[in-house]
Amino acid sequence: MLLGGCERGAHLNEQGSQMAPAAIQTPLRTVFSASHCNTKGKAVRLSRVDDEQGAALLIGQLSRHLLGRRVELRPYSLDSENLYLLEMGQRPTAGYTVNLAGAEATIENSRATVEMVWGKPAKGGFVAQVVTSPCLVFALPKGRYDTVSVVDAQGHIRASSP
Fold first, then answer.
1. C-alpha span between 47 and 83 (Å, rounded)
2. What is the DSSP code (8-state) at residue 75?
3. Per-residue CA distances from 88 to 24, 51, 109, 144 (Å)
4. What is the SS3 assignment for 57?
5. How far lies 55's CA from each of 91, 120, 156, in Å?
6. What is the pLDDT of residues 93-129, one digit of tens each?
7. To which H or E segment does residue 6 belong?
8. pLDDT tens-digit readout, 17-55
9. Do the strands 111-119 and 147-151 form a parallel or antiparallel pair, or are they unpaired?
10. pTM surpassing 0.70?
């Protein structure tokens, strides 16, 4: 009986009780970022791209305002990784940013957690009065997770995606 539990990846403590598996780190990287990404609405959103058709639609969305030019994503492989588009939502001025906080995500209990740094203009600073919609596309290796959650520095979930 114990052998069967071990085969499924169960972890046992000193008393022989089952423990939750330890969190693991997995690499992630930025594939694209911009201060304006044609986002509609103010909500923060996270979307997964896992096929070439989705990647083509993503590039089209990010390129809409470029008058015939197309954005270029850094190299990626949809055979081994998924792309995620994190949209910060529309913001009332320039100076808002979203960036990866580190080069790794944490996978625990079938959830990948990605920490982001959410930037905003300095209070009282001079900024352009223009609507912006910052975004970031990041690559995460395919793995043992069903959900991806994006969190801020305080650990608050800002967005999730299957």
1. 8
2. P
3. 27, 23, 26, 26
4. helix
5. 25, 28, 28
6. 999 999 999 999 999 999 999 999 999 999 888 989 9
7. helix 2-7
8. 555 668 999 999 999 999 988 888 899 999 999 899 999
9. parallel
10. yes
